[in-house]
Amino acid sequence: MRPETRQRIDEIALKLDYRPNLAARSLVSAQSSIVSVVIGDPNNPFHIQLAQAVDRRLVAAGFDPVTSLRQIETESAEQEADRLLRLRAAGVILIATPRDPEAIGTIAEKLACVYIGSKPIAHPKVTTIAVDDESGIRQAMRHLFELGHRRIAHLAGGQEPSSLDRSRVYSIVMEEKGIEAVVIEGEHNAAFGRRGVDTLFSTECPPTAILASNDFIAMGVLDRLKGLGKSVPQDVSVIGFDDIPDASNELFSLTTLRQDPDVQARAAVMYLQQMLTDTPSITSHVPMPVELIVRRSTAAPRVR
Length: 304
Prior knowledge:
Structural class: alpha/beta
Distance between the termini: 77 Å
């Protein structure tokens, strides 16, 4: 249309406080700009960071993101897919939910699907943006061994795919060194970090280093160690995973493994766009790099 006509329409729309109806527009164009972002664990600060990064990337790409905090279970996967279709969502980005690959496949059969998590999903219609947990844990263990630690305990985060992978690699590395693995099972939260410290320091031979499955656990570890009068890193070294914003706080100065939420978000949106435009050769598994960030929470043990 002519520029003056467009300007006149814009003026009228502004005067009437007009807002486009996304559902109606998608019916007319046969295309939807709506993308659902489903957060697996809203209590996990890294999941929130990741969701915010995905939201920014989707908006920049011209999509209208709709965020959901409902964790998807195996039995609810089909109903969730139907709900998203009723919302006329063009696609969905799943952040560490559901845990069952079959449930993820159920969703992917109905709409374009990208899964961000630690587990590769063997489904032809799912692209997985997966952090390289093995590389990260090996970097952390190498750092601790080079400092001279041998009594290294691991606080695991339960049945999350990321936690299972990290525990597995920790145990493999300890076995490679001929050292008995010490794994305490729990959850990805600070309360478990505190309980884990109590368990470890109730033994005759407590660890000189603790590798936490994520930063949230590590924060609880630091808090409880201080309560027990233990000095970090002089008495105990601590490593986390994720590099959440508080990890670099001077109060914590946590050595951790950094995964970049913006890099993962950019990849997720790019591959979703490929699916929606039927671009051939969609990659099914995209590994994300992990970097060891050394801060003040790790040092050589007092007794080697």
